[in-house]
Specification:
Elements (H helix, E strand, L loop, with lengths): L2 H26 L8 E5 L2 E4 H12 L8 H23 L9 H12 L6 H10 L5 E2 L2 E9 L2 H12 L4 H8 L9 E7 L5 H9 L9 E3 L2 E11 L2 E2 L2 H31 L2 E3 L22
Antiparallel strand pairs: 1-2, 1-9, 3-8, 4-5, 4-7, 6-7
Helix pairs in contact: 3-4, 3-9, 5-9, 6-7
Length: about 290
Amino acid sequence: MSRRVLGRVAGRAAAALLALAAALACSRQPAPPGPDVVAHLSGSELRYAEFEGFLRANVGESGGALASAALSRLFDQFLTEEALRRLAVERGLAAADAPRAAAAEALLAAERAGAPAAADVEAFYAAHALDFRRPERVELRQILTEDRLMAERARRELAAGARFEEVLARLGGAAAQPASGDQGALARDELPPAFAELVFRLQDGQVSEVQAAEYGFHVFQVVRHLPAETLPFESARAEIVAKLAAERADAALARLVSEARSRYAVEVFDRNLPFNYRGVYPVTRPHEAR
C-alpha cells in the first residue's frame, strides 16, 4: 500500500475518533434543568416553589409586586441561607430538614463567643466618650386633638393641677390623636422646629398654650428638664455590651457566609426566574449547563 493511501486511511481514522469523542462528550452533558428549577447548590436542585415559600415567610407575599432589584436581593438571601443550612447540617448543628433560618441561627450561635470582656467594654467607653454625651433634654407629654375647644379644656384642667392621665382619658379615643401621651426625653433637634423653643421655655410641670398645627391642636406639658451630661460608664455599660456583641455576631456571620459560598457551588438559572435576576451568584443558561 502506498504512503498516500496509508495517509488517507490514517486521516479517516483520526476524523472518526474525533467524531466519536465529540459524540461521547455530548452524551455526558446533563439534561437542561426543568422549568421550575431556579438554581443548583452543589448539584442539588432548588425550585421556584421553595423561593416562593421563602418570600411569603419574609415579606408576606409571593413577590409579584416587588421590583427585580428587590427580588434579586431576596433570591441571594434565599441561596445564602440554603448554603448556611447545608453547613449547619454538615457540622451536626441542625437536622437535614431544619428550616433555613433556624439552621443559620444555630450555626451563628455556635460561632458566637461569650460576653465581651470587661476590659473591652471599658476600652470602648474610653475611645467613644463623645458618643455618650447627652444634650439638654425635656421629658415631655402632649395632648393632640383635632378640636380646639377640647384642647383648650384639656389645657385649663392641666394648668389647674389635674393629672395628665385623667385629662387624656376624659378626652376619649375619638378626640385624642394616637400621638398623645408621654413623648419621652427629647432634645431640641428632636422636636418640630416650630415648637422647640416654646417647649424648652416651659418650666417643670408647666403647660403650654394651645398650639395650632395643620394636623390638629397641641397642648404640651414639660415633666422636667434634664441637663446636658456625659452618660456615666455604669449607665452606658449595657448599651456598649449590646453593641460589641452585635459587632461580633456580624463578623461571625460574614465569616460563615464567606465559608458557605466558597464551599458550595451555586448556579442560577435566570431564564427560569420570573424576574430580571441581577444578584451576586453566577448565572448559567440552560444550554450552558455542564
